[in-house]
Here is the input.
Amino acid sequence: MPSLGADMEAGTLVEWLVKPGDRVKRGDIVAVVETQKGAIEIEIFEAGQIERILVALDTKVPVGMPLARIRTDEEVKGGAAAVAAPPPPIVPAPAVREVPRPAAPATLARPTIVTAPSARRVRASPAARRLAQTLGVDLGATGGSGRGGAIVRADVERNLAGVAAAAEKRRSVGLDLDAMRAAIAAAMARSKREIPHYYLTHQVDVGTCEDWLARTNAQRTPDKRLLLGALTLKAVALTARRFPAVNGFYRDGQYEPASAVHAGVAIAIRGGGLAAPAIHDADQLALDDLMARMRDLVQRMRAGRIRSSEIADATITVSSLGERGVEALYGVIYPPQVAIVGIGKVVERPWVIDGAIGPRPVVTVTLAADHRVSDGHAGALFLTEIGKLLQEPEKL
Amino acid sequence: MTETDIRAVLQEELGNIAPEVDLQKVDPSADLREALDIDSMDFLNFVTAIHHRLGVDIPELDYPKLVTIDGAVCYLETRLGPTKS
Here is the structure.
């Protein structure tokens, strides 16, 4: 069960999309899990063959517990010589099916934890040990890829990636808005408790963008049209790549800049609720592709269908109020991220150009950033750069 | 295509965009963006769906004519030409 957010402790497995014997590849969707954030599609990180399903439907499972066992391609190739490379261990997962459902409040049976036999000395990094202990994994049977065969954190994580593949299947799962509210409350309270936010605001003339969009869209059928939101998202993503201090994670007292820009797009859910699934490598996508991804995300979000990797790994968040919003928004950073960019609605304002006043469409772009990682000066340069990029939409 | 047909298509496509809204209760002269709480992305999806369903390519300049259900019916009737009966 992957962690789909700092506040997640468990998830309920509601659908398997693979069965033993199925072949899977990295990125395949193998199961659907219900969490406080709604139904989330679980993707697999390894290629191989599903060997065994470990968790029955409708079972509530704590984060870190294996859901299925996968035989990786390497293991399959190893075949009979498997003695040298023992299969990765699994945490025994007694089927903790919650029966009977209606009456008693379901309690979660803790899985038995396997601990490494104390007699055997295993070479492992402290991070790997900590993770293995938290997750109840037997380090002794984990293959090490570190120096001298030492087990590193990645080995433990790889071991846990047990899950599998399949065709995407439509399924309507109602979002639990109360649970989502509780998740937002937990994340935002933590943010305001731990993150020293600072705020900056910058007004940007988007007249050039609007003219360019009108010209471009006039040539296109509705399915190919672009929105200002795609231009602003691309501008933020491109700028974030050049300002590592706003794009990354602050964890365990340390800042880790991210190597890619995964832009979390805040999407309001009617009836109250909010999610910010990520568009991966938003800075690398062509504008048309970025727009297509945004449309897809909004539609899947409305249908209650997001993927695990989209929920877990945004490196920076962008929140746009849209035409029914107000001029400016001061965001609350989603931990462990370190910045959130707010895009207000477009308003007509008197603007001075070459000494003359005229009406221009203006957008207020704001930044809320983590003062443990960056300062106002860097934040100001970041916002200024976004404004500059929006003066040349054809280059985005 | 009759006015009733057009209205049915609009209801269906709006239902896809805002599934949680009871469209029967929406005033056909109300601004859809407010009545359904839809944003520019939803509206673009609505226009795209109409294009696919009815073959009417609605230019951006005509968007203001589609912000109410009555307005959209009227606009589409004109664009689709006289009703064959």
Summary: Chain B has one domain: 3-18+29-80. Chain B touches chain A through 23 residues (CB under 8 Å). The helical segments of chain B are 3-17, 32-35, 40-54, 69-80. Residues 3-17 of chain B form the longest helix (15 residues).
